[in-house]
């Protein structure tokens, strides 16, 4: 009789182990040995079996047979019908298991505990990595040879730790080379197989390709890093970012942490404890609502608005809001994305300019659409740009211009300012400051000069080495010009107060106005009551031929009406053909004619021109009109006194 034991060994399938063989018949014992070989079992030690002719020494390599391999035995082959059925069922389960494994992404290995882990068994789906079973079983390829060199020591060390602690299994992620030389990420989970003495003999493992997961994780990591950078840039800038629902008073679902500049916290809004509409000044709220509704009805996607808000302390602040209208697939408005910038300092300057007109004329608002441009610069020569927000277009550049390396940030800084910017930033780094602020000039894409204010956060690594600068650049050109104009007015007022010489006054007025960048020529006409004519009494930047032709006009002549007007003139088209022709010949491209009135009567005019710009900007017009109101109070008394002499 043959005594046979069937059992499952680890994850490697069914093994038929021959405990004893006693002489019953030759076929039965030979079949058991053949099945042991077919099931990848190992009868490594010789055993004795009794066959007709005497006991013979056998193992799984010399157990020969004549029958066709893998045939199912009949009732005569196996002693005991029930035992045979169980054996058939085990074979069927093994074949099903093989089919499942070989059609899955999980590759099964049995490795020896030897250098570089030679494989005794590998499932056929190892072809997923380009290899064949024979590559490993033959020893041509050792498993350690396909592990990425930088990961090999890590795998070996981690495995050794598990062995020394007596752990039953081992799990790790690492890289391998496919047969084509491509790098693949895998997850290995192995069982550590020990003999009766506790010595590790084999590792039974499954290897799963996780390359796509790793790629997704890397993309997510980069996205989160960029999100972190943008959040840091925003929170270190004056621009507060909001996301509002399209509901009454616009409840906020997001607000950046730098809302603290207005005294609030982000949670004040996100918790719905404070609604955004409630902090807008009551006198401005209806206008803001009306503007928003008009832009929605027009189907617009963004717009700008300026209004007042109340800080948590109850102070009034002017803000500029850039709003983006978000719609769903049906075109219905769902929410609003907003960037709120404190423009109170600018508003104060505008108010000062308005008051300088002595309330006699409303000053047009100096438009300053200086939305903040976000940058991330490397701490290397000329500050190459890793990130810049899309509104860089306001300076005539594209994002690609900077991120491609075609333009370095240092390239656009005005050459007279580059050294001071470099030295100030170097000093901030040297003194280990966390931030840096400075005003300087840059060149736009069309080579115009703009003043900007930069507010930068200095980023350091864990060794305190400066790696990057995260900054906000705001166009402050109009603000700078407004300050300069106020200073010119102040200095002119002081100078005029110190002289009673009419010609000196006229020269002071011309010289002061020509300090404005857009103006490079001008003249002043005064009326001569005795001769009933108007005379050019002072001029700058005009050719002698031109001056000779426009030097004097009779007060009632058509020519006089073109330089002696009741209201300011800023268009070349105002002039008759003869005068227009002289202006073209003089290469004048823009003009400003501002009457000087005293007690309701026009006593003179300020006439200015430009050879470089095609129109006089609005802020310059306001400045010139303010000058006219200012200087007439000095000129008129002296002119009247001269008339009496």
From TrEMBL:
EC nos: 2.7.13.3
InterPro entries to which the protein is assigned, alphabetical: GAF, GAF-like_dom_sf, PAC, PAS, PAS-assoc_C, PAS-like_dom_sf, PAS_fold_3, Sensor_kinase/Photoreceptor
Classification via SMART domains: PAC, PAS
Domain of life from the UniProt record: Archaea
Keywords of this entry: Kinase, Phosphoprotein, Transferase
Reactions the enzyme catalyzes: ATP + protein L-histidine = ADP + protein N-phospho-L-histidine
Domain PAS residue range list: 262-299
Protein's UniProt name: histidine kinase
